[in-house]
Amino acid sequence: MLSDVLPSQNIDFALIFAHSPNPYVLLDPNFVLVDMNEAYLRVTMRDRAALVGRTMFEAFPNDSGASELRTSLERVLTTREVDHLPLIRYDIARPDGGIEERYWSATHTPLLDGSGAIALILQHTVDVTELHRLRSHARLGAPGSAVAQIETDVLHRAEAVSHTNRLLDAERLRLRALFEQTPGFMAVLTGPAHVFELFNAAYLDLVGPRDLFGRNVREALPELEDQTFFGLLDEVYATGRPFIGHAVPVLLRRGATGEASLLHLDFIYQPITDASGAVTGIFVQGHDVSERLRAEEALAASHAQMSEILESISDAFYAIDAQDRFTYVNRKAETLWGRPRDGLIGQIIWDVFDRSPDSEIRRAHVRAALLGSAQRLEYFSEALGAGSRPASTRALPVSRSSSATSPNGTATRSGAS
């Protein structure tokens, strides 16, 4: 009963509810019927015992309007705002077992508890079946009064509004689905306290399972207190200027009680403005780039280790890319050629060392790249010092994954005899 749900007050709202001439029914968040007044029982041709404790859709099974009614109720749960159904066809069973065609106009109002959560939904429903029939008669050319025509026009406009609302609701649901399925994390914060209004699945994956909706960021994410993020949000809200962060370190708990983990995030705080240009909230969007940074650090460490090895070997070593440009020259090659590596990197090898296309060394490079196998040759090289000196060379093909060169290039190791 209503008196069991709402605390007693000076005004007897339960009495007002019970004796109102307007049909009212109360539903819990699972759409279970909690209580209804006498006007509702009369218009639905039911008694209280047959309704209380059953869901709306168990008490009034329907194939035509159930989906539209459920969508309106679910919209109230999502937005915590009043939702209107200007016109809905929802047939109900008569006491004799027959089905009666009915048209209704309904308003669904959320009733919040002390914590701001929805405790009940109040449905105010009006039977507009006669209006709908009047309009049908008018369409068929049946005679009618001016009042009937006005009522018909009103109902027609209500139907148009209802149709528009259904289209808007379908679009809203589509956009909400896109928001939810976006791989990057997203959230919408409202007001100067940055209260969570929306967040997608990726955002919950980032912060772990915790209660976010209706809470401000300081309450929901207390571990961020000393990490500059709250100050950044305040600044974006105050100035209306977005903030973009790249690989920003953050200590986050995966859940309200989990251990803090170090993550790196790319993200943007984008101010949301109203029609007058005033900031009303902040849109948060980003990606966790922690794995990418770890991979880059591991690759850099591998490159450093490879460079250390190549710098310590006794042979000259150089690498060229697919355009025959030097990408690496080790210290021994600098010494043998008498040329600093800074002057070689980026230069085409055959511009530096003039060799004809049919020379053995150039053919070895081509074979290594085309065949994907090492090529070895011995030749006399003037580049190894004064005069012509014998050299032993191995040309090795390397791919994008190689630490020595770029795609489809060649690494060459040479030694003087």
Write a concise synopsis of the structure shown.
The protein is α+β, with helices and mostly antiparallel strands. The chain is built from 15 helices and 17 strands.
Q: Output the structural class.
A: alpha+beta
Q: Describe the strand arrangement of the main beta sheet, using strand numbers.
A: 2-1-7-6-3
What is the level 1 CATH name of the largest domain?
Answer: Alpha Beta
Question: How large is the share of residues in beta strands?
Answer: 25-35%
Distance between the termini: 102 Å
Number of E strands: 17
Mean pLDDT across all amino acids: 81
Major β-sheet profile: 5 strands, antiparallel
CATH superfamily of the largest domain: PAS domain
Shape: elongated
Overall helicity: 25-40%
Contiguous helical run count: 15
Number of domains: 3
Low-confidence segments, given as residue ranges, are 400-409
InterPro entries: Biofilm_reg_signaling, PAS, PAS-assoc_C, PAS-like_dom_sf, PAS_4, PAS_fold
GO biological process, one term: regulation of DNA-templated transcription
Domain PAC: 246-301
Pfam families: PAS, PAS_4
